[in-house]
Write a structure and sequence with these properties.
The complex is a heterodimer. The two termini of chain A are 30 Å apart. Chain A is elongated and about 60 Å long. By secondary structure, chain A is of the alpha/beta class. Chain A has three helices and eight strands. In chain A, strands 1-4-3-2 form a four-stranded mixed β-sheet, with helices on one face. In chain A, strands 5-8-7-6 form a four-stranded mixed β-sheet. The longest helix of chain A has 14 residues. By secondary structure, chain B is mainly alpha-helical. Helix content of chain B is 65%, strand content 0%. In chain B, helix 5 packs antiparallel against helix 6. Chain B is globular, with a radius of gyration of 18 Å. The chains are: A alpha/beta, B mainly alpha.
Chain lengths: 188, 261
């Protein structure tokens, strides 16, 4: 059940965040099981919604099911816990033995969060990220920050309170219409 | 006390450790703000910055540990490299190890270092070492947020009260004395560039200044005069502040070898 950190083996861009077609029964079931493993920091989303699961492989010379995960942030403290949760879920579903391979490249992007995941984020009270590639990060205050929509009342009359929220992946904002603070999942 | 580990000090290992130690040591300084920052939001922000840097350091130290094996030494892991080296075997630029100072110094140093990190990570995107390029690919995205956070605060303090502008100016005068080291190339840089491992230190200066100078100008700060002084942390020769930092960083692993939570 070891965690292996590898150099990139798959350099293809984003793998699908839903089960690809033409998979074995075991791999199809594994994709379904992992879609019920929730992210510990944002428990509204599964690791599949977040796009953390890049591939689930079987190899002819081994009975190990190999799950390829890409961590969101270099220092995300949830990474180890997610690995344990993924292995435990597969074991419980009778799909083991399995192992997790951490793949750094290509680097995780918030663009990999699925459409369903974005909706879940919003319903959870976290404003979903804008496109990571299309919007250049505001360099400093001469460029106004893009107006964010309040996930509670939909007002665009919002402001940033702090560049970092409870976790590195979020920023803290406030709605000036309904007065509620909310978190914003930062595009990266 | 657990004995210190020995490094092969190959050029590639030295190159990676300079960067990994910059991340590790700055992470340690930023983490010192936990529970002490002026407001809760910034307390959390500085801890999050530290966490990103620590994650980057973990990847780089693991890689440096593999390079130890490649150069004929033993395989070392991230914890051994993080906790069991003597002071002279840490190769961070001196600027990263200076005491955290006040909030003005912290954000000013973050501006100088995050802008430098951004250039380094950009230069490493095409590294001949796939693992190094992968670490840099992730870190580049994070460094942009670090840079933005620092620049926002430098502008805010620069446009604030007489007290905040005076403190910011003092911070720049202090930090600027140590910035030149970031851009001094030596045999390690030359070897890394020749092998395609990563950029030479001096090649990063123009891009760095283009990022930093407009922010300082807008904050009302004049660039301090150039000085011939060059600090030497990247060669393992540190200030008196490094010993205190390492004693805190290493205490648990030295006293309780291989202790885990």
């Amino acid at each position: 059940m070891s965690v292996v950190v590898t150099s990139p083996r798959r350099l293809a861009p984003a793998a699908p965040d839903v089960a690809p077609s033409g998979l074995s029964e075991r791999r199809v079931r594994a994709w379904q099981v992992l879609d019920s493993v929730l992210d510990p920091e944002v428990p509204a989303l599964s690791v599949c919604d977040l796009g953390l699961v890049r591939a689930i492989d079987e190899w002819p010379d081994s009975d190990l099911l190999e799950v390829v995960l890409t961590p969101t942030y270099s220092g995300c403290p949830a990474t180890e816990l997610i690995t344990q949760d993924v292995l435990a879920a597969l074991e419980t579903a009778g799909l083991g033995p399995a192992r997790v391979v951490m793949q750094r490249a290509p680097a995780w992007s918030s663009d990999w969060i699925s459409a369903a995941g974005r909706l879940k984020l919003r319903n959870y009270g976290i404003a979903p990220p804008g496109p990571a590639t299309a919007v250049p990060i505001r360099w400093h205050h001469r460029l106004p920050a893009p107006a964010l929509q309040c996930p509670r009342c939909d007002s665009l009359h919002t402001e940033q309170l702090a560049a970092f929220g409870a976790t590195a992946c979020k920023a803290l904002h406030r709605c000036l219409a309904c007065g509620e603070p909310f978190e914003y999942f930062k595009p990266i | 006390m657990t004995a210190s580990i020995a490094l092969t000090r190959s050029a590639e290992q030295q190159y990676v450790l300079r960067l990994g130690d910059a991340c590790l040591v700055l992470a340690q300084r930023l983490a010192e703000w936990s529970g002490h920052a002026p407001v809760l939001e910034e307390d959390i922000a500085l801890s999050n910055l530290a966490l990103d840097l620590l994650g980057q350091a973990r990847g780089l130290l693991s890689l440096a540990g593999q390079m130890n094996l490649r150069a004929g030494g033993v395989l070392l892991d991230e914890d051994q490299l993080g906790f069991l080296r003597d002071e002279r075997d840490y190769f961070n630029p001196t600027l990263a190890e200076l005491p955290r100072g006040d909030f003005a110094f912290t954000v000013l140093r973050n501006l100088l270092l995050s802008s430098w990190f951004k250039g380094v990570w950009q230069g490493l995107q095409t590294s001949s070492d796939a693992e190094l390029a992968a670490i840099a690919g992730k870190a580049l995205k994070e460094a942009r947020y670090h840079q933005q956070h620092a620049a926002d605060w430098v502008l805010r303090l620069g446009g604030g009260t007489a007290e905040s502008t005076q403190r910011l100016k003092a911070a720049l005068d202090m930090a600027w004395r140590f910035h030149a080291e970031l851009f001094v190339s030596d045999e390690v840089d030359v070897a890394a560039a020749a092998a395609g491992l990563g950029p030479r230190a001096d090649s990063l200066h123009a891009g760095w200044l283009a990022d930093v100078a407009p922010v300082l100008a807008e904050a009302g700060l004049a660039l301090p005069a150039a000085s011939p002084f060059r600090s030497t942390g990247r060669r393992g020769q540190h200030t008196e502040h490094m010993g205190g930092l390492l004693s805190q960083l290493q205490y648990l692993q030295r006293s309780f070898p291989r202790g885990v939570w």
